Amino acid sequence: MSEAADTPIFAAILKQDRPRFNAKFNAAKANAPAIDGAAFLAHLSARVAPLVEAIHERFPHRASSAADELYDLSLTLFSKNILGALPRVPPVAAAWEELFPSLVHAMGKEPKRIGGAICNALVQLHEAPGARAGQWMEEMKSLASQFFEESDDGEAFLSAGKIVAWRCGLAHFRSGALQTARELAQKNEPLARAALGLKGSSSSLESVIEDAVQNPWWTPQESSKENSEPYIAGVVGAFHGFAADKKLGAVFVSPPRVVFYEGNLFAVDSQNCWQVFADAFGASFHRAGPAEACPRGDSTSKWQLSAHGQVFSPEGSAQFDELESAGSFAAATNTLVATLPHSHSIFFVAL
Amino acid sequence: MASIFDAFRKVPSAPTNPHPATTDAPSASSAEPLKVKSFDVADLYAGPVAAGEGEGAATTQGLDEKLRQAYFWIVNTAIINPFYDIEYSEGACPSYSFGDGKTRLQLPSDQSYSSFVLLPILNLVLRRRCLLVGGPGRGKTASAILMGVLAGYSLKELRRAIQHGQPQMTISDLLGNPLPSTLVNAKSMDEIQIAWRSWLGMRVKIIDEYNRIPTRTQSSLLTVMADGYAEILDHVYECPESSWYLTANDEAGGGTYQVIEALRDRIDVVVKALHFNTRFMGDLLARVEAEVKPEEIVPSEIVFTEDELNEAHKQILAVEIAPELLRRIEFFCANFEFCESAGDQFEYKTKDTLKLSGVDAHLVLSAETGKDKTKDLGSQTRNGLSVRALMTALVFAKATAWFRGNAAVEFEDVRQILPFVLHDKLVQDADSPFFEAGGNSIYRVDKIGWIRELFDLSCAEYDRLDRDRDDPVQRFREEFEAGLDGLNEREIRARMAKIERVLDDWSKTRKLYGHVFDDVLALKYLHHRYTNYLKWLQWKK
């Protein structure tokens, strides 16, 4: 433990209520015997104590309750091996060391809620194939130092976190994240811009968000008007056997086909039907049912794919040799999706 | 109960009462249907860490789910209580018969509950009065304290505020004292200031061993419990609506002091502390060794704010009771009040009239009336049900349904909860021939089983009479409630004639059982409403 002299407030809090803190630890360990007591102490010393000291400096009256909540939160994380000697979600430890200290005001107000939410988000980002927990951490640290050094508005921080999480690969959160961006823009436009990754953009935020809503291939760097030629925006999907490597979309047991149904993209192989979310920031796959439940496509888009790999419509065309002899294709407003008969991949063509 | 020592911090995961998923219309082959998903971005913050209110909490969790989580935390962690005496089943369930007495054990097939935990928890959200009875050391006070912690009070506050019944307890001990300085100097009562006891302002009130409170002090307690205020020297303290928990070692109202009847009558639900099952001694040992006191480490996720409890109460009152179920409850409740020999005037033929007369009830109740006393459910009780008891029964049925996540009360909710609500309300006539009939003597002792049997018998009779289809009172009531506007004299007289014909038929063919008694009075009521309206029509002419 860092010497009690370095963290006198936390040490005093622990000492004052020692039996209760010990009872909590014993109870947690009884259920999760793998909790490493030494690792827990080290965590208290290196991460919790400094945070409590920092909270005490700014809000002396909150230090005791914050210590309590952070202790409980730590126990929960250790019980589930999210933190520990061999943690299964390393970014969470990094959050305690690098992110929480930048959020003293917000953490001081609601340590368990804000801290718990951030940990949950990192668990999701870490475990979702293709998602980028490290990027999320870096961007959130940057937002914390820019906007939250003196602010206790944990709600705004979490809202920004939703937007950043979408941009870090959780594609299924896209529409919710953009709605959050709209709402956040009303209260704190600079924060909303930063969360969307807009650097130095002078465009109206509302119009930028609207572009993003309409076009899944929107990126902060791209002007929606510039690139009017179709292009391959991404390739996802792999054989189910690569799932252990967390390869994005490694869910298919056989080469899939694709359809659009009620605006949603589905990819079906010989066993299962998957709902696919994909945009410029990533993709995610969610099982929707057995293969036989896969709906018929209902898209009325005029974009087509020829057997020679030409993507065409009355509005234009582009040649993609890699899409020659496609096994299936489906098109919606901004996207044409294609598969090949001998591949587990899905090709996304931005229109 | 392998999970009894699950993490004391672990709150059971939602959903705690998973209902079969409502699926889309199955495909022609009845295969698993397609599930089109949409995602709430707030779920980014849902995960292994329950973060409390707001973002990070289970965003779709209702208050009923939170209460279920509280319930399961208590039964899995806080109290070693491996009982499921409130049984729900879907379809057939295994049943076994033990011993010469043919004692029946049933294995329920749907989520079932322990009354010792469920009823206090329902009482918490209903803000009623719960009596916990049982021998010493069975967790009655500990259970009450847990309820206080769930309501957001600290242990310190609760321990200071528990009222411990003891023979020297005075009204001042219970309610407070006038401040001596103001008492000395006051020239009128208004100038006296009262130092009220802090427990009066709490939303969870715990009275430990209430049957050890002297009778005089019990009267003061009654005012607080029944009327929600305390009074000393013309000064009144208005208490907030509260959930009450009283404990006693004797359910019959005995003890150091006899509990006054008015106070006993204010108890809404009686819960027995069940015995300790010795096969779970290991769990007890583990608890002793870990020095864990559950009331000290209640997870914050299952602590309710005052607003949440208020909201839960509102939601419970909105739970529906279907008319068909309500009629069964009406039919059941109607069985008990009637006493043919208690009065000459029809309306006075009640057990209440008998009681007020002071005549030996046994003499009157055992008089021959021509009815089969083993079949007459009313013969099994010495009293009927008060309005207060009926209201309590309905509210607890709603609460049970709400707790189980349903928008409407189910038959089994009523069947399971009625015995606990009516436990002290229905006074058994142990001399009734019913209890002499084969196998029924056990109901002299097991009141819960007895009331449940009463309800089952009542429903059987209801079905035999085909009341769902053949209920003239219901038909006449619906006709009446459609309104009288626009009806002429001829139509009114026709309706009155129909009522008279039914009464004539019943007078010749039906024995006067309790439910018939209430039906007859209901018809009299309707007939008289029409009579008044007819007179008005004639006056108007």
Q: What is the element layout, followed by pairings?
A:
The complex is a heterodimer of chains A (351) and B (541).
Chain A: H1 8-16, H2 18-31, H3 37-58, H4 63-79, H5 90-99, H6 104-109, H7 111-127, H8 133-147, H9 154-167, H10 174-187, H11 189-196, H12 205-214, E1 231-236, E2 238-239, E3 250-252, E4 257-261, E5 264-268, E6 272-279, E7 282-290, E8 304-305, E9 310-313, E10 316-319, E11 328-331, E12 335-339, E13 346-350
Chain B: H1 63-78, E1 86-88, E2 95-98, E3 103-106, E4 110-113, H2 115-126, E5 129-133, H3 140-150, H4 155-161, E6 163-164, H5 171-175, E7 176-178, H6 180-185, E8 194-196, E9 204-208, H7 215-227, E10 229-232, E11 235-238, E12 243-248, H8 261-265, E13 269-272, H9 281-290, H10 306-317, H11 323-333, H12 351-357, H13 361-365, H14 387-403, H15 411-422, H16 447-464, H17 472-481, H18 489-509, H19 514-540
Parallel strand pairs in B: 5-12, 5-13, 6-9, 9-12
Antiparallel strand pairs in B: 1-4, 2-3, 7-8, 10-11
Helix pairs in contact in B: 2-14, 10-14, 14-15, 15-16, 17-19, 18-19
